[in-house]
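Job type: complex structure
Entries:
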Amino acid sequence: MNAIDFTSAGPLAAPFTDGQRDGVLRYQQCTACGGAQTLARYACQHCGERGTLHWRDAQGSATVRAVTVVARAPSEAFRALAPYTLVIVQLAEGPRLMGHANPGVRIGDQVQAGFFAHEGRTLVRFAPAS
Amino acid sequence: MNAALRPAYVRGAGGTSFGRHEGRSALDLMDAAAAQAIESAGLARHEIDGVLCGYATTLPHLMLSTLVCERLALRPRYAHGLQLGGASGAAMLMAARELVRSGRCRNVLVLGGENRLSGQSRDSSIQTLAQVGDADFEVPNGASVPAYYALMASEYMQRTGVTSADLAEFAVLMRANAAGHPDAHLRTPVTLQEVLASKPIASPLSLLDCCPISDGAMALVVSADPAAQGAVVMAGAGQAHRHQHLTAMEDVMQCGAGEAAQQAFEEARLGLGDVDYLGIYDSFTITLVMLLEEIGFAPRAGAAQRARAGDFAPTGPLPLNTHGGLLSFGHCGVAGGLAHTVEAWRQMTGQAGERQIQPPRRAFIHADGGVMSSHVSLILSRED
């Protein structure tokens, strides 16, 4: 857990955080308009409907949109991992997600989600799709 | 019938030096900046009838604005704090303008300051700032503010062709400007090669692409009456808030900056070509490049070319952050974002001392909070 966790969405994001712990990526989809969305929200970013959002399992395939290699870790817990690669990907289902990635991945690469344990948490790591 | 809106002027400004102020608290620093601003406005304390105060990470008080009022012996009829990350300063100035325009207040003190460098450990500061990321989806990955901006930079650079050398131009320019300001945090000139060879932080950003963490404070007075030093009216303002978290930013080419700027220009009945001074938020070199290009002061991937041509230098047609910006004057949170307007006002009213350029007539100010999340644009216009 982070020392400062006051912005956690808690129950709102639980299907995502629980899923990640079990090795499944989840995203919100609206049953009214069918739109899929990034992060956890109370209403659909596409049609504005509230109470129509459901969590779906993603297959884990994605395209890399942004990539950085972090040399200066923000905390002791991550200093041991540095340098590490972070990416923002677009899942095949549409939503975007931040995660770790194998060294050397580039923007536009097709990747597949995998998982690793770090400091008692399960995090996602994207690797080139085979 | 609505009463006609009254004009709102920047009437005074003040601030401390930025850098390390060992042993001085957030309130110590705010006191010094406020005293200078009130004095430069030619006002007595009892004439301040509105106070807007930005948050301080080293003083997370429940009622910071009225705590400040008590300590500074102010008794306003209107006060509150404001939290909008790096855009807090510009947002408070916009709100102060509305308070004056509506007739609610005559003299609004806008204030920010903190001991962000000396009042906490670097790790603590970096972790506090990283919380602008999503606590469930982003922060647990070991992301930091530089990492968010680096991710954004990678996409922007890939799509536009902007290079690391392009970004470095702005680190060099901000340092050259800061070298001329006695209050700047970082004043030793740097070369393009030194920027490119500086320690990696989060690729493509290296150390000199990032602003420092500083102690300091800045304050301004927005008033129904112009300053004795010159009439600088707040002619236009605009905001846009499209996302909070980087992952939710829909389009790196349209993050909201252009929308905020357009509102400000429409309200001021002015266009890009009327502007002769820029005060643009520059937490990282990429911030500056993206804002200049999205707002339209340079074509896509063209900001560095304008910088190389000298267009943004103090001697050029569009001087940019002549105090040295966040990148070199320094960044202590809310005050860092206020410093761009303090400098614009000083330049417009001939009070910039050895840095004085041909006094600009129309300044465009822009700030972003979060990761290009909250955007505030302001237009200042000299009336004489």
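Summary: Residues 1-6 of chain A have pLDDT under 50 and may be disordered. Chain A touches chain B through 42 residues (CB under 8 Å).
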